[in-house]
Amino acid sequence: MNTYCQIALATLLMTLLQLPPAQAQNSSQAQGEAVSGKSGAAPQQHRRGAQKFVLENSEGASIRLWKPDLSTVPLVAEHGSITLPNTGMDNYHAVVVERDWGALKEALIRYQYMHGKPSGHSTRELTAAEKTSFEIVPDPVPREHQHYRSVRNWNFLLRFHGAPAANVAVVLESSNGTSLSSISNAEGKVSLLIPDDFSHREARGQDQRSAEFTVSAELADDSVTYQTQLSAEYRVDPSRWRSLGLGVFVTAIGLAVGGLLGHKAVRSS
Amino acid sequence: MNPLKNLSIIRKSVQISAFIFFVYGGTLTGFYLADKVSGALPALSCAYDMQGADLCTLIPFQHQMDHRLGEAIAGGGNLMMGLMPTLITLGTFLVLFALLNKAFCGWICPLGTFQELLHNLGQKLGLQRSESLAPALVKRIRPVKWLILLLLVFGFPLLTGIGWVNHDLGDPFCKICPSRMLTTLATGETSELYLDSSSSTALTLSLVADFLFGLTIALALSIRQPFCRICPMLALHAVFRKLGLLRLVKTATPGCDRCGLCAKACPMDISEIHTEMHKKDVTFEDCTLCGRCVEFCPYKNVLQLKYAGLPVFRADPAYFKPRKKAQREWEGSNLLALLKGSRRVARVKQP
Predict the structure, then answer these.
(1) The Cα angle at residue A240 between residues A235 and A244, in degrees rounded to 5
(2) C-alpha–C-alpha distance, residues B22 and B183, integer Å
(3) pTM of the entire structure?
(4) Quick check: A49 pLDDT over 70?
(5) Could you say which residues from 45 to 74 on chain B have a Cβ atom under 8 Å away from some Cβ of chain A?
(6) Once rounded to an integer, what is the mean pLDDT over residues A108-122?
(7) Does A248 touch chain B (CB under 8 A)?
(8) Average confidence (pLDDT) over A152-180
């Protein structure tokens, strides 16, 4: 197989996906790593300790974890996965995987919330920092304690050496099989609708399912091709169990009752 | 009366500016929670408002009860470590609170401002308005804010963290707070106005929230500050009101017995401002330090707003007379009075 074929194959397979919490916990425990001892009922966002990701085909890649204060920690992939150590800092961190093939430069980025002591730094600083030559930056990253949700438009900014990358084709692919494409505007921005591609579920209660999406783009400059990918988790939109219409209806009842009570209170006083 | 010397107009300007800043100011301060001004504002500036400049201290309190203290108790962890985030939030709250005391309610709170503006609208529409609620009703309502503070802000979140109640009760006050709906709707976001059918607890909380939001709007048109009377923030302020630099101070005179204009002017119907004859500090638990009682006190220096012991606004007959006249004119010019006046003119013109 020639080098170019190898590059092409590697490019196709290099992905960064989060392990489901239970799997991550089992996996970490199996390797004797420290995972938070919180109850299984605790939501993932409040889980402290190490987080584990699958990193496929990462041979020759350099991996760094960017902390909220913009300091970095080198990471090593083992058995096709990487473990993010507990940095003790609260807020978003960025996992940046880079691979340089000479004529092809690849980058994967994932913004991951980690719990710890307040970092005193805004996520703005992390997104503004140039972490790799060509990167897709969420604009903004979902706010602390929030998530990407389906049926919502989210903006992404394409940056090449810190400057906006205009007119670049962008592809969003979800692990549920959806594929969307768009082109960045003059400011390097692109707006993408996170797909509502979760299957219908009859069961009552909040739908806690999540899936992964990637946003990818490719750019050529001075005979070097740059490929970049942003990966993130998204969840089912709450409109599946929340009704705006009924909410307005109950508010209208409150208005009517309030009108009567107000009138009565005024008359009695 | 010169509007620039009218305390109510000055206050309204501050309120509207604060509303704009706290509801839309995220464009200046930043989008992320870490960008917000304090993270422990002593007013109902909602964290669910993505464009807001700050967030109310009640949301971190609920989360810390649930995820820090509650879980520390349940897991047999270090209680001091579990309590530390709450103490840090309380410290931030107190630093801010000391500056303005309960004036955060009367001058800053977006929900308070919204209710006042609705009341003004009610006045202008000529909807019959209540100068004051019956004292017995006021007394019955007063304990509600303490119950909400103890149960919804601290109690249920703590029990959730311990694991005794379900996770939907992790932040129950936010789930029913009208400010969540008001501030998000003000930014064009409808996602917080919903009926949640995911569980019976979520359904109950969302029913209460939507009903309370409608009730607050309708009542505010005819009754002054309906939600403020049961607001847990008012109760939290009441706990620490002796630490605030701004105070309402009274030096009673024999004339106070007969007058009572201060209590009538009070939007929270605090009759004790009138009846209290001995205490100097009359910053009562329901007071929002709006200063209306001082404006409508006809006796020189009887009521004063003092900052760190220095008077900043004093009752004065020279202020009272034009202020009362301006108030009469304001209340007299409304849609209903206009319609009545035109009917009277029509009847006179009939042969």
Answers:
(1) 120
(2) 9
(3) 0.87
(4) no
(5) 50, 67, 71, 74
(6) 91
(7) yes
(8) 96
Report the gap between the CA of B277 and the closest CA in chain A (Å): 25
Side chain identity at residue B136, one-letter code = A
- Alpha carbon B317 to chain centroid, angstroms: 29
Q: Which of A132, A135, A114 is nearest to A68 (CA)?
A: A114
Phi-psi region of A55 (alpha: psi -120 to 50; beta: other; left: phi over 0): beta
Q: Is the pLDDT of residue A269 over 70?
A: no
| Owner of token pair 């004065």 | B316
Is residue B268 within 8 Å of B228, Cβ to Cβ? Answer: yes
Nearest residue to B319 (alpha-carbon basis) of B308, B340, B305, B333: B305
How far is residue B15's CA from residue B88's CA, in Å, rounded to a whole number? 28
Instruction: Say how far apart CA B236 and CA B150 lie, in whole Å.
Output: 10
Which residue is it, tokens 């309030």? A258
β-partners of residue B307 are B246, B310
Q: Does pLDDT of B337 surpass 90?
A: no
Distance (Å, whole) CA A102 – CA B25: 46
Q: Tell if the CB–CB gap between B195 and A143 is shorter than 8 Å.
A: no
Structure tokens at A148: 């990407």
Q: Which residue has the tokens 């509207």?
A: B16
Encoded tokens for B23? 């509801």
Contact criterion met (CB < 8 Å) for B163 and A39: yes
Inter-chain touch B191–A238, beta carbons under 8 Å? yes
pLDDT band at B59 (very low <50, low <70, confident <90, very high): very high
User: Using CB atoms within 10 A of its CB, is residue B310 exposed (0-12), middle (13-18) or buried (19+)?
Assistant: exposed
- Put simply, whether A243 touches B (Cβ < 8 Å) is yes
Interface test with B, best of A250, A260, A261, A266 (most B CBs within 10 A): A250
Domain boundaries, chain B: 3-129+137-236, 245-329
Burial of residue B198 (CB within 10 Å: 0-12, 13-18, 19+) is: middle
List Cβ neighbours of B181 (8 Å cut-off, separation of 6 or more).
B192, B193, B209, B210, B213
In the β-sheet with B310-314, what is the strand arrangement from edge to edge? Answer: B246-250, B303-307, B310-314
Per-residue pLDDT, A257:
96
> pLDDT, tens digit, for every residue of B18-54?
999 999 999 999 999 999 999 999 999 999 999 999 9
Does B135 sit behind a cis peptide bond, omega within 30 degrees of 0 on the bond before it?
no
Q: Using the 8-state DSSP alphabet, how is residue B304 labeled?
A: E
Residue A13 has pLDDT above 70, yes or no: no
- Residue B349: the pLDDT is 57
By Cβ distance, the residue of A144, A251, A265 closest to B223 is A265
Sort out which chain A residues have CB atoms less than 8 A from B199's CB and list them: 204-206
Q: What percent of chain B has pLDDT over 90?
A: 85
What pLDDT does residue A14 have?
Answer: 59
Q: Are B98 and B309 in contact (CB under 8 A)?
A: no
Burial bucket for residue A82 (CB in 10 Å: 0-12, 13-18, 19+) = buried
Q: For residue B148, what are the CA distances in angstroms to B58, B66, B215, B290?
A: 11, 16, 17, 23
Computed on alpha carbons and rounded to an integer, the radius of gyration of chain A in Å comes to 22
Tell me A202's DSSP state: -
